[in-house]
Specification:
The chain contains five helices and four strands, in the order E-E-E-H-E-H-H-H-H. By secondary structure, it is of the alpha+beta class. A four-stranded mixed sheet has the order 3-2-1-4, with helices on both faces. The radius of gyration is 18 Å and the shape is elongated.
Length: about 180
């Protein structure tokens, strides 16, 4: 797990044509998380826009054909394991929360944590907004990028809750980055 903040890259395609969307995943509320987009067959551009970034690859079978690009990335994110890590994190926070008492010695009220997006079904990606081009490589990449934005928003809400409670934030009062798990 890295403490680096910034954007991840959603990668879709092969060596001939690739769509890449950057998604800001900082643990703070943002108005726009989709922060960069490229659709290109230029290998040099592909390398530059994934360089040193964590990536989400839409089709695991394309990892082999995109090795030249992914070799410049900071790793491929395992979405299922990342969702599990976030759930484990909130369970740990609940344990700390329920083990502590209020200043008056009372039990604490339960915390309602934000709902995480359901794991992506690669065969049935979420709908994209009206007006998005019909090109399949672009539509599917945007769908996954928007899902990542929803995950980042849920994480920002978790960290806002955690940092607002002294008994949960005393070890680290600053918002933490998403605990991405790499493949």
């Amino acid at each position: 797990m890295s403490n680096e903040l910034g954007a991840i890259a959603v990668v879709n395609g092969d060596a001939d044509m690739m769509a890449i969307w950057h998604v800001a995943v900082d643990p703070v509320a943002q108005t726009a998380r989709l922060c960069g987009a490229w659709v290109t067959g230029d290998l040099d551009t592909q390398r530059k826009v994934v360089a040193a970034r964590r990536t989400v690859v839409l089709d695991d079978s394309s990892i082999g054909s995109t090795t030249e690009v992914l070799d410049h990335a900071d790793g491929v994110i395992d979405l299922k394991a990342t969702l599990a890590a976030i759930e484990q994190y909130t369970c740990g926070l609940d344990d700390i929360h329920y083990a502590s008492r209020t200043p008056k010695g009372s039990r604490r009220a339960p915390i309602t944590w934000p709902t995480l997006p359901h794991m992506l079904d690669w065969a049935a990606l979420p709908e994209v907004p009206a007006g998005v081009v019909k090109e399949p490589i672009i539509r599917s990449t945007i769908a996954v990028a928007r899902w990542m934005a929803d995950l980042a928003d849920a994480w920002a809400a978790i960290e806002t809750t955690r940092t607002s409670k002294p008994h949960l934030s005393e070890q680290n009062p600053s918002p933490l980055p998403i605990p991405f798990v790499l493949q």
